[in-house]
Amino acid sequence: MPSVLPLGDPVPADGSFPPEVLSALASRADKPLGLYVHIPFCSVRCGYCDFNTYTSQDLGPGASHQSYPDTLISELEFARRAYDDAAAPPRALSTVFFGGGTPTLLPAPELARILDAARKLFGFVPGAEITTEANPDTVTAESAQLLAEAGFTRVSLGMQSAVPQVLATLDRTHNPDNVPAAHQAARAAGLETSLDLIYGTPGESLADWERSLEAAIALEPDHISAYSLIIEEGTAMAAQIRRGALADIDPDDQADKYLLAEQLLSRAGYHWYEVSNFSRTPKTRSQHNLNYWLDADWWGAGPGAHSHLAGVRWWNVKHPAAYAQRLHQGLSPGHGREILDAQAKVLEHLMLRLRIREGLDLAEYNALPELAAGGAAPITPQLVAELVREGLLDPGSAEPSSSFPEGRAVLTLQGRLLADAVTHRLLS
């Protein structure tokens, strides 16, 4: 089943923002504004997945593939009104990301229609990055060309593995032979490409993972994501592990596979810019995901989608039928929201900056107004030096400079394996 929505304060029926947001919006005119579009449809639900996705038989009355684009566009219209009512400074969208689910289960003309509505309602900055995720089985030369003509700039293919037995364990139904064909179709249409891989699947050997990495590298995509498998409670895979049908994931095995990924990807010219993400050049990094890591703003449209604007986070009702009903009644689809307190802001700033290649600007962090209010202490040079000696932080980056008067905390390769532990150490 999809994951449970968090608790929170109720969202007003008109979607109006709390006073704290209204007063903060004017100071965020220079922050990027992104749009996440959730397409919750899948042909089959994968055993490891706890995303808010649904097969056709799960949808129920009031929700369908055919009606969904109009419902989604009605939320974009609602978002525009709420944004205007807040007297927010004008900001065009710098990124749009269609995720899921499998966005390309909708016909390409329907994806184009949703994108065109976003363009008309918000506008795009020049060179805006516009991405859709895709199952390799759903991309053809014709659909890729239609996406490119509609304004999409990037396709992220869910490859996951090149090994059939690993795909079977993950309940992935795509034909691995279709990955090269889908990649070539996207390339021929002039689209940038990204491949998503998962490592640490029960039963996957190191040789299996090497085979997947080499297959991905051979296609020469612009970007590769390599995510460790996480077993979420409530998923079919969690139940299989609990009853002994599958072996549990092994953190040491996952560490070995991450090290192999770093070795092979860096040798092939891919450079890490976030712990799980590698790109050929800074230009081909995922700007949409960087917005999340750098405290930008985004509106999440679709059932269960999460949004963030000037320190308030909210999330929509989960089921597509309930989502459609709210919007058809002219009501906000929001289910709950929270205003980030000082402690949460400090933690997120530290944790997210530390995951990226540029690292944490220590002077910027130590000057955060929320630091004392959140009960956190400044990061001392002594603590940084200790983590450098342990091989977890890069010594060159830790040195003060004219640009970074207190230096930066940048993870080493060993530090990336222990990113959560380094975060806790810096918070202490």
Automatic annotation (TrEMBL):
Matches recorded under CDD domains: Radical_SAM
InterPro entries per UniProt: Aldolase_TIM, Coproporphyrinogen-III_oxidase, Elp3/MiaA/NifB-like_rSAM, HemW-like, rSAM, rSAM_sf
Key words, A-Z: 4Fe-4S, Chaperone, Cytoplasm, Heme, Iron, Iron-sulfur, Metal-binding, S-adenosyl-L-methionine
GO terms assigned for molecular function: 4 iron, 4 sulfur cluster binding; coproporphyrinogen oxidase activity; metal ion binding
SUPFAM superfamilies (alphabetical): Radical SAM enzymes
Pfam families: Radical_SAM
Gene3D superfamilies, per the entry: Aldolase class I
PROSITE patterns: RADICAL_SAM
Domain Radical SAM core: 27-274
Any one Gene Ontology cellular component term annotated for this protein: cytoplasm
Similarity section: Belongs to the anaerobic coproporphyrinogen-III oxidase family. HemW subfamily.
Role summary: Probably acts as a heme chaperone, transferring heme to an unknown acceptor. Binds one molecule of heme per monomer, possibly covalently. Binds 1 [4Fe-4S] cluster. The cluster is coordinated with 3 cysteines and an exchangeable S-adenosyl-L-methionine.
Protein's name according to its UniProt entry: Heme chaperone HemW
